[in-house]
Specification:
It is a single chain. The protein is mostly beta strands and 331 residues long. It contains five helices and 18 strands. Strands 8, 9, 10, 11, 12, 13, 14, 15, 16, 17 and 18 form an eleven-stranded antiparallel beta sheet that branches. Strands 2-1-3 form a three-stranded antiparallel beta sheet, with no helix packed on it. Strands 4-5 form a two-stranded antiparallel sheet.
Length: 331
Amino acid sequence: MECRDECLCVSINYLQNTREHNCELNDVNKEMKPAALKYKPGARYYDLARSYSVEGGRRYMPEKDICINRCCEPDPCFQGGVCREICDPETVRFNCTCPDDYTGQRCEKIKYLARNCKDIWKYGALTSGKYRIYDAQNESFLVYCDLESEPEFFWALIQSFSFGSMNHFNTKVFNRDYPVDEDSLEVNWALHRLSLPHMKHLAGNSTHLRVTCNFHSQGLSYTDYARAELKNHNIFDTWNKKCMLYEYLNIRGIECHNCTALTNQNDGSSWFINSYSSNKQFGCDFDGRPGMGKAEHNFGRYVDSTVNPDHRCTSAPSSTTEHWLGVKRDL
């Protein structure tokens, strides 16, 4: 009786040697999942006997008749799925047509648990845009994924701001929770930042940090560009005037590979590279003095005396700085 009235049930296991909890309801049967049927002493397996007829006593014909078994009446589908009753005695008694992101008989399972932008690509996405990423608790959040600009990488945008909006981020270190425009379906490139938990989730599923200028308006350029491995660059830590290692760094056309540059991030000061003091005062590999004045900050912490209009991130009020976390394609 219990199996008959439970529409998920299509077979049972009866345990002969126990007085309580001796009936197990199954949502599959031996035809649907033969490998699940295994011998167990004292247990018996039974299929739910089902037969369907139409008015007048004629046997139900699925290609001709409409099935009505009332299994859709309690609205068993989750996430807005659409229920259809099934009168086939060898399979399930209903199924659900699920929204794109869900699967399972009742749409109870998330179809794609993308942890980073590489997973988004693996599950079929080819174009850059905003996608849902899932954290360790399987809660989703929106992330702009760059799937196209660099063949070797997939990148997740964690922060973008215009030179005109610099005061919003000049003091915001990456270990501070300061989400801005996080839930919008379109990125506000002039003022955008993910929450600290979401940035940390992406960092845990990434290998690299990238910084770009004017990405949305001009596309990717390797002039005024930085890329570093996260194993050498903990963006949630704080430090003062430290030579940090970069895979590639280009500031105003001055470039270096696998080199160090003076990098700051401390209380009250957001992440930035000090290209003027890098080599001369602190002995880092990168020397950005040619083509600058007495001081220069790059990729963040823009204040009046440290701004160079020849740096693409600070060439105009509408110029933007973008910070990304990414993973290599071949990992």
